[in-house]
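Q: What structure does this chain adopt?
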Amino acid sequence: MTVAQLALIEAPSVAYGALSPMLIVFGVAVVGVLVEAFTPRRLRYPTHLVLSLGGLVAALVAVITVAVAQTRGGGLGESVMSGAVVIDRPTLFLQGLLVLIAIASVAFMAERRLERVVAAPAPGQRLSDGPGAAAQATLSSVEADMFTPSGASVPNTDAEFEATRAGGLTTEVFPLTLLAVGGMMLFPACGDLLTMFIALEVFSLPLYLLCGLARRRRLISQEASLKYFLLGAFASAFFLFGAAFAYGATGSLQLGAIGEVVDAAAREPAGDTVLPLIALGLLAVGLLFKVGAVPFHAWIPDVYQGAPTPVTAFMAAATKIAAFGALLRVFYTAFGGLRDDWEPVLWAVAIATMLVGAVMAVTQTDVKRMLAYSSITHAGFILLGLVAFDEAGLAATMFYLAAYAFSTFGAFATVAVVREPDRQSGPHMSGREATDIAQWAGLGRRYPLVGAMFSMFLLAFAGIPLTSGFIAKFDVFAAAAGSGAGVLVVIGVISSAIAAYFYVRIIVAMFFADVPVDAPHVVKPSVLTTSSIAVCTVVTIGLGIFPQPLLDLAANAAQFLS
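A:
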């Protein structure tokens, strides 16, 4: 290539204003890495907390500012970075929702009143080295967070004990969470498959690490991290292979260009759509894995149970928002011309997801696993909006994501405050989370406020009127029925009835069953967790009584920039 030819190449312009929400989050994450490297240990926790919450609030302000600028005068948004990123109405809606969930998640991760561990020895006191040093510890305790003090130490060893006594904190969770949030914000905004793959890895890799950092039940946590990593790597490989097939079939990785070629081939009687269908199938495997749809759901119960509860709450809410945003963009903008081919497959996936999740949830005895299978069922409900494949379906999907995100986050946060009776176990001086459903018997009578809030979340999951879940299900069922998918609506109602059984079962146990021996107690959290649960409760009730503002916002946002 000659110098003259090189001179004709135009460098892509970077629209910093449109990209500012993501740039702020990524920038704060990088600063957080530097804080972790250079700040004294005693200052890391408060520095990270202020930096993370401040950065996310700034990102939220940036999202609102960009949304006002991009939609002024009926605008649909713009494509930036040579088409690699699309800042349109669905992108801005989902980014705003992600940032709100991220603020609550960071506050929950910073909680330090739910765990108590052995305190550091008094000045001048020495403990012998080697095995048995743990037995010489004093019984004084201090408050701690819900993350292991040393991710590299072997569980239940003196190394872990001494790391706890030394006051070790895994404050790396804050920059890791922000990196994941940045990747999630980019994922539904991607205009080409290569950028989408990069965003997928950017938010997946931190999550793999976060899942293995639980302070309690370390072996289960590490198992969850390994399972998520291995299965996630396979899913990412399928996605990348699908991108390769899409490029081979259309000559482009841009979603808009792929859509034009696919539409042209679908309109021609002799058009060859074999390669595009293979590409879509492989891409769908990677995306349906992230949303937890059957048959790509096997990781969800183990990972949700083993991961630290703040990470579980964050994943259950934020990952679904990002993954469904990307799924909608791929199907709507790139492969809409093949709807007659992929719609029957999506029907089967939606039916299996709704029924398998509901039936399996009935058999669970662990609250976190029950909520995990519940999330699978809700993924099936949300898929009905994609099957509808119109603006009403897109709007219903986005409203459902908003309603479900706050309800599921609040439910997992509530689980974290219910604790077994205090007893010493190694370096731990407080009880573990009481996740066995039998332990929740009588909890609502002894702690009416906690029981009422958790019941509200469960009723929202069941779709009971005056909760956000009822409006969300009604909206998505109406969109599916309007597009001719009445059979799916009937199956969805049946699945909801099955799900209502195990939700009501827990409510009955909390308020009407006898209190068991060694009944758990509720630990009063700090204002960080309390405010997060309170906001989720208010949103769950508010969207059930006054849903119209968010319904209008979702309807106005339901149009992709082609």
